[in-house]
Amino acid sequence: MRDLWLDLSATTQDAILLVALLLPGAILAALLLRGFAPGPLVRALLWRFRWANAVFALLIAISVGSGLALIAQERGLRQGTAQAADKFDMVVSAPGSELTMMLAAVFLQATDAPLLDGETYQEIATHPRVKIAAPLAFGDSYERAPVVGTIADFVTYLSDGEIEGRMWTSTFEAVAGANAPAGIGDSFVPAHGHGDSAEEGAHGDAFTVVGRLPPTGSPWDNAILIPVEAVWAVHGLADGHAPDAESRLGPPFDARYFPGTPAVVVRAESLGATYALRSEFTRDAETMAFFPGAVLSDLYRIMGDVRQAMSALTLVTQALVAISVLLGLFILSRLFRRQLALLRALGAPPRFIMAVIWSYAAALLAAGTALGIGLGYLTAAVLSRVVTARTDILVQASLGWTEMHLAAGFLSAMLVLSLVPAWSVLRAPVLSGLRS
Amino acid sequence: MDNGLSLSVRDLTVAGDRGRSILSLDRLVLEPGVALGVQGPSGAGKSTLIFALAGLAASATGSVRWGETDLLSLSARRTAAFRARNIGLIFQDFLLFDELGAEDNASVQSLFAPRGRRPGLREQAGAMLDRLKVPKASRTVASYSGGERQRVSVARALAHEPAIVLADEPTASLHRAAADALTDDLLADVRARGRTLIVASHDERLLSRMDRRLHLADGTVREAA
């Protein structure tokens, strides 16, 4: 049986689980409604107390929607960060915090990091199993967008070779990220530093944007990339090349004129080579080599506990909502106590009375849950936009099977619990109901 | 035509909320097809008697025998089934579903009747509304006059052709002309079909047209003149 289950596709498994979660409600409906036609009465009750019902359904929707959006958002954030780090196979930097260096190199978060010297860079760049060794140079910005120095090969790799316009061919040309505040043909002068403390006009040289990257879903979309030589030059440093090769852009660099880099993004010739290179460049007190994906993975593991806490909180919230819904149903069923007493006086069997109350509750719960799914979808979409705008990490949170299972589980549990108010109506004396 | 059921009540007592006896009836015997009026001051227990005869008073003890069936000895489910089949109830304030039309209200029992009986019940409800001259408009009964609403209520009580009709102050919410017209129509139907009718009322014009009258006062019951 287990093998049969494992042989099924993930989609089939999810679909079966969804049906299984909805099954208790469906079975209840079949058992309660068999042979009866309570539809007109349920519609009448829904219409009679339409405003109370609408508020009730809306409260259910908000509760379900916020729970679903929260879970979807957490998943979207994980996927977004993983996608942002996708192009960064390995980073080599001076020993320190892998997390800090990953945030600096992949997510372009400003940091003061010690530099790797020219010999070290040379060793990495000339390693036979290295395809690209891109030095990164941070520290400048333009209109709050980071200006990053690197090499053309890395820019081409980052864009999968699909640059709009062209790659830089001279020191003071730039390629802008998809969302950067400068377009092709624009000129800009980088400020020294970032944010409010950035010094405008500290560097006098103007750059011209000659190309634009396609969207990558990472903070690099907001960055402006320039030749690493230009970063060094505007800071009054050697430009990485010997005086007789000063007009050269990109590798090879001359170790004697290499001012240093906080991080080198490495692309190896194969996956096996990446592991070998990490081992080779992990040296005490010299270099630290790490996989951003692995650092993120560790982060997710820590966040996993947070996620469990979030899931537990969501469940607690749903349980509280369930209690509120039950109390609401008790109150609502008292509102039409007289109509129900009339039906009992006319000889309606107890199962029919239960069917009316339960169908009424089911209609509100189903409407609230369906509305909640829509609301959750919208909330997740809005939150994704906000997070993307604030972090430049492309977060595409959307409702998936997990959220559908949660909604179906909530609905099914509530449909079962709705029997309690339905049953309690039968315990009330008919006479007092008729005279109420 | 004699479709009614006989009634035999013995030692019927109904207790109120705190166990206080609110109705006590040692003996009442009614032939099938008889129309009985129950009169008495407010609070004498007229409505309680009507509900007890319908098996709706949970605290009732004794015996209420309709034909061969002792209603008080049945389970709640069987009592409900007996009511659905044999009793038509009419209330002072109509007790209609305001959001439904006249036909839906009159045929409300079809919603829990066996599937095979549903079309017949709806048909009978429609015919009953025609007989009582109630407009079967598509609008809801909320817009009907008091007289029309009570006629819908009567149609609901008679649509399933019950052997017994129990009415609690059926004319109390109507003006005189509407009350008289309703009395005429109700009695015409009951007598034509031989149903047993018991009416609790203050309406002397209605009571005067009953075959027998019962007077309830101070916990005692006597046959009225």
UniProtKB/TrEMBL annotation, chain A:
It is a multi-pass membrane protein. The keyword Transmembrane applies. The keyword Transmembrane helix applies. GO terms for cellular component: plasma membrane. Residues 319-427 form the ABC3 transporter permease C-terminal domain. It is found in: Cell membrane. Keywords: Cell membrane, Membrane, Transmembrane, Transmembrane helix. This is FtsX-like permease family protein.
TrEMBL record, chain B:
Keywords: ATP-binding, Nucleotide-binding. InterPro entries: AAA+_ATPase (IPR003593), ABC_transporter-like_ATP-bd (IPR003439), ABC_transporter-like_CS (IPR017871), ABC_transpr_LolD-like (IPR015854), P-loop_NTPase (IPR027417). One of its GO terms (molecular function) is ATP hydrolysis activity. SUPFAM superfamilies: P-loop containing nucleoside triphosphate hydrolases. Pfam families: ABC_tran. PROSITE patterns: ABC_TRANSPORTER_1, ABC_TRANSPORTER_2. Coiled coil: none annotated. One of its GO terms (cellular component) is plasma membrane. Residues 7-225 form the ABC transporter domain. The keyword Ligase does not apply. This is ATP-binding cassette domain-containing protein. It comes from Histidinibacterium aquaticum. The lineage of its organism: Bacteria, Pseudomonadati, Pseudomonadota, Alphaproteobacteria, Rhodobacterales.
